[in-house]
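Why should sequence recovery work at all? Because a backbone constrains its sequence more than one might expect. Tight turns favour small or flexible residues, buried strands favour hydrophobic ones, and helices have their own preferences. The token representation captures these environments compactly. In the example below, the structure is given first.
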């Protein structure tokens, strides 16, 4: 572990010996080295789903170097993924609120960063997914804006295609009363279609074929489009994948239920 006190002492000593241009050049290199070493371990833990092990070092970096985008983005990601992992509802909400807080802070610093738009769309989308229908409709334009911006800047990232696919599915699946409400809220209500949901979800699978959740939503979309055989085929592919979090566990169970019901019809 790097001793920040020693580094600070060396920097202060250096100020008295060289000019400020050289000082800031060295400072940049030192900070870059610190971040590189810390991020290597943090990113490894994120990749291996050891999210709890990332929070303390990230909080320490955030204290030492506030308003650093790389730190804020990782803090948001870690808390978001922890909210997906935990089963306790209180802790789920706690981590989700933290995730939204950190990515909002990052957005204030740089509103052009694709990763910031991505994690904002994911955090905000989860925040309103169980809210009342009015809040969901009002928030839908925020989700589509950030997802679209993320896709522009990160065209090979599968997750915002997934978010856009779900967004189109949910809007296309609105009942008559909810559609009327959307017309009251907006002069031009947001429009979704199952066809667009299919397109986004297929793109997401092409980029990341190992995520079970996209197969679930694509199968549901095929059901709405009357493509029953395609839906069953997608569900069969989906259940071969491991559900990483509680959300996907529920999706796995529903796909199994649909497939078993279809098998009973045949017998």
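From this structural description, the recovered sequence reads:
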């Amino acid at each position: 572990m790097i001793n920040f006190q020693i580094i600070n002492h060396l920097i202060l000593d250096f100020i008295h010996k060289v000019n400020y241009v050289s000082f800031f050049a060295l400072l940049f290199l030192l900070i870059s080295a610190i971040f590189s070493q810390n991020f290597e371990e943090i990113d490894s833990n994120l990749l291996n789903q050891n999210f709890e092990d990332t929070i303390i070092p990230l909080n320490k970096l955030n204290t030492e170097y506030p308003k650093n985008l790389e730190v804020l983005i990782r803090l948001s990601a870690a808390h978001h993924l922890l909210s997906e992992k935990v089963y306790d509802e209180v802790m789920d909400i706690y981590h989700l609120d933290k995730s939204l807080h950190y990515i909002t802070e990052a957005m204030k610093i740089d509103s052009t960063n694709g990763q910031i738009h991505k994690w904002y769309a994911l955090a905000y989308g989860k925040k309103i997914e169980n809210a009342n229908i009015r809040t969901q409709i009002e928030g839908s334009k925020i989700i589509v804006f950030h997802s679209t911006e993320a896709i522009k800047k990160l065209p090979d990232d599968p997750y915002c295609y997934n978010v856009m696919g779900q967004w189109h599915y949910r809007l296309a699946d609105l009942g008559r009363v909810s559609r009327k409400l959307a017309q009251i809220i907006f002069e031009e209500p947001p429009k979704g279609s199952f066809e667009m949901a299919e397109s986004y979800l297929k793109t997401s699978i092409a980029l990341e074929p190992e995520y079970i959740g996209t197969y679930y939503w694509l199968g549901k979309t095929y059901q709405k489009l009357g493509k029953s055989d395609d839906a069953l085929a997608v569900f069969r592919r989906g259940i071969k994948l491991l559900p990483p979090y509680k959300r996907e566990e529920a999706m796995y169970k529903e796909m199994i239920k649909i497939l078993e019901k279809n098998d009973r019809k045949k017998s």
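A few observations help interpret the result. The first helix runs from residue 4 to 15.
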